Design the sequence.
């Protein structure tokens, strides 16, 4: 390429008005050996950019399988179900125990009530006896 | 999206992510860590990825944000980059050999640029992105990209000429 062309391109390059294709032309030009002396100072710049593009990522691409997250969620669900189960199971058992205690007390109370009824019946006889005793006293 | 399919999408531009990360974070190890992190994030979002029409641009943006966050937290934590000892001008033999190499000069000159100019220069001159793409990626308008790019290129030229003339004038 003509020298004057290159100089013009360089100017546009530094004003950042050159296109990508024109910049590519500059890079190609400066990659060659026969660059005139007064332009040689720019050569390292363009050479560096070409070299910098060659750098590669050498690390591993770390891809974990996604099954792990499922296991995590399943275990969370299992634990919560277990806790709820224990909680509700316990309260159900307590309810049954309370029912049983209630029935027993009821039985005991009714037993007490029947015996008390018997007692009052006997007391009624006693009153009858008292009344007749009074009658006898009054006659005399 | 299956693993192989994901790799097919990601592999063409993973080197670009790495180069951008390295440009910003300087250290090779940190850049590799950052790239892996980004790829992992992409993989974890791979269901959504089918909705993006430009995965590469999205990944580049993620890389940029990730690295800038890294740098910010590093400054806040007062940690210095491993490579900041580049700048002490010890005249060991190795350094002399290195300095004589113009190409590594440019790498060092680019390290001294502000982050934004660094990124613009990286994306344009190394990766050959169009101005509009760079503007989208960095959240600037195209004119601002041009200005930053021109400034960055001129700074590199100026410093390069300075170093060339060093010891001559």
Sequence:
């Amino acid at each position: 390429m003509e020298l004057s062309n290159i100089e013009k391109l360089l100017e546009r390059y530094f004003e950042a008005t050159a296109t990508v294709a024109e910049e590519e032309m500059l890079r190609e030009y400066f990659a060659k050996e026969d660059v005139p002396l007064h332009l040689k100072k720019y050569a390292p710049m363009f050479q560096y950019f070409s070299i910098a593009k060659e750098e590669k990522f050498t690390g591993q691409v770390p891809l974990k399988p996604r099954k792990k997250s499922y296991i995590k969620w399943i275990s969370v669900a299992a634990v919560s179900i277990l806790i709820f189960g224990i909680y509700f199971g316990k309260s159900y058992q307590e309810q049954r125990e309370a029912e049983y205690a209630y029935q027993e007390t009821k039985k005991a109370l009714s037993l007490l009530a029947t015996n008390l009824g018997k007692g009052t019946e006997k007391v009624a006889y006693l009153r009858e006896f008292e009344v007749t005793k009074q009658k006898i006293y009054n006659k005399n | 999206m299956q693993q192989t399919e994901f790799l097919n999408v990601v592999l063409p531009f993973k080197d670009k992510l790495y180069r951008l990360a390295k440009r910003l974070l300087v250290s090779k190890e940190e850049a590799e860590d950052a790239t892996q992190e980004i790829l992992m994030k992409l993989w974890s979002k791979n269901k959504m990825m089918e909705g993006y029409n430009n995965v590469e641009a999205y990944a580049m943006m993620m890389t940029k944000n990730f690295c800038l966050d890294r740098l910010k937290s590093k400054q806040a934590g007062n940690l210095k980059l491993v490579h900041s000892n580049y700048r002490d001008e010890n005249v060991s033999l190795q350094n002399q050999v290195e300095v004589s190499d113009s190409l590594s000069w440019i790498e060092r000159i680019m390290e001294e640029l502000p982050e934004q100019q660094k990124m613009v220069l990286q994306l344009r001159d190394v990766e050959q992105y169009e101005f509009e793409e760079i503007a989208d990626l960095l959240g600037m308008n195209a004119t601002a990209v041009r200005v930053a790019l021109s400034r960055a290129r001129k700074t590199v030229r100026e410093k390069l000429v300075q170093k060339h003339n060093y010891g001559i004038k």
